[in-house]
């Protein structure tokens, strides 16, 4: 088996290796939503009015007066004085067009054969009942409702119910820990939580309410919690307390209720999404109703080539931005069928995803490089067993994709017949910024592509000067776009510091967005994103702050100091490497290692689990006392080390190197 795979890979490599570029298939171009290369010039010449093209994808209660207000930059405002409701745009208007019987969400559960289909009419009813229940619970306009839910239908339903009544949501990834939940609820002053009893992971029921309760115990203000019964009789027999209500009871009390969508200003907050940054405190990224929704809809149409009659599948979790923009808001705004999968790709078998593509005739698949590398490792026979001919387009997001994985995806999933869009963007950008347009652009494996029309992304040196083709530098975005974050929740100063300080020139009112990624540019202006240049690492496409992990490790008794870096990892892209100094009297032994791993899982979640814990007597530091993270990264990657003479303690390097190798 293994041998066959390798042979086949070698052959594929030999044939595709030479090929650096790929043209969009003719059959795709003919039907593409966007196929006129003139769109780049058109957007540039008409900027910022070009963005009306995105706004026109929505129904507005009141037309905006101005596309962009730059007067208080970088606090930009888009579609000024426009009024709309996101839930209306994602549901009601499709029903008004007579499409109520068409499928909005195909939900595929982890247990095989547990599926649920929601038409737009079904979604309308569920969302209205929950919106009415939220109101009765006291949720008012602008109250932040936190959701701590796995991939069950109640998650998008709750998001849309919030949007309907103008209550911003803050979704916390279900894999995050109780601590992470508490931090986010406190930071957002959120008094409402929607969670569930538990969910399935590889066949086993997992207790989720226990974790939610542990988090709630740390929130000092009063809270009301809605609990979805996901597991039924397989549940854990939790008793709900006085502040907790059964989801099913709440909506049963509201049967048939209808809630008029609240008219929101374009700039009103639609949701908050917490993401990792350079400090230990996660950042509450604020997205708005008009700009965000129009941008999500526009990119879903232009880049993912989604049309109402498609069945489209993004395999991300809704707990991350990708799921917000490209499972919920973008696809539903366009009135398509969005497939939502609860389980993992390898349960019960490693062909589960291909079985789903075949069963549902999926037209677009949007997934992460980490998943593709896993598919590659499992072998081509899994997709080969299934008819994947319904697929028209493939996408990736979350981290750089290596050309080998790209080519495997192209051949074994796309049958050399689907364009691949490698989409670069961030929680903060709301939607995609750099990628080829699938009906226009030549594809270059490993390179995301040019900036999208209307997006002014550049690669610059430390002085902000554009660099020459072929060189590496820093990615910047020099003009605003509708999907951009508006601020960090209740922290305008940090918003400026994090994203605008580095390359802007406030004196001449020039504002440049800095995403904190490094990148390379080619002659043809294609951008290859290299990765974060801050203290954030990217594990399986998930953003984790090294400071958050370090503070969790330092919280373990016996630990004096810790430094965390990302080391290369074949499957995950990057993995967590922790270098730890113990307190006097403590041994760096297996016991402490386990406590450290458990400490990190408790503070953040299993995704942040250290791959290696290296105990050391010292950490490499500069003379000014800063930990040399670059060096620790090179050690983790077993790379040649550069000059270490600037270290205060150069001797420590070889000691650590030996420990990493010995592990
Ligand atoms: C959407 C999302 C953002 C960070 C970003 C970058 C990395 C995302 C990428 C990519 C190379 C791509 N990233 N897409 N790197 N190529 N196509 O992932 O948001 O979780 O906020 O992460 O992910 O480093 O800065 P988020």
Q: What key attributes describe this structure?
A:
663 residues, alpha/beta, GMP Synthetase, Chain A, domain 3, seven-stranded mixed sheet, 29 strands, 32% helix, globular, binds ligand 6R9
Map the helices and strands:
Blueprint: H1 2-17, H2 26-31, H3 39-45, H4 52-55, E1 66-69, E2 77-80, E3 83-84, H5 86-96, E4 103-108, E5 115-119, H6 120-137, E6 145-147, H7 154-165, E7 169-171, H8 178-187, E8 192-196, E9 198-201, E10 204-207, H9 209-217, E11 224-228, E12 244-246, H10 247-252, E13 264-265, E14 269-275, E15 283-288, H11 290-302, E16 311-314, H12 321-333, E17 337-341, H13 352-360, E18 364-367, H14 369-378, H15 381-384, E19 393-397, H16 403-413, E20 420-423, E21 457-460, E22 472-477, H17 492-499, E23 517-521, E24 527-532, E25 536-539, E26 542-545, H18 546-554, E27 559-569, E28 573-582, H19 590-603, E29 612-615, H20 629-636, H21 652-662
Parallel strand pairs: 4-17, 6-7, 6-8, 7-14, 8-11, 11-12, 16-17, 16-18, 18-19, 19-20, 28-29
Antiparallel strand pairs: 1-2, 3-13, 4-5, 9-10, 14-15, 21-22, 22-23, 23-24, 25-26, 27-28
The structure holds ligand 6R9.
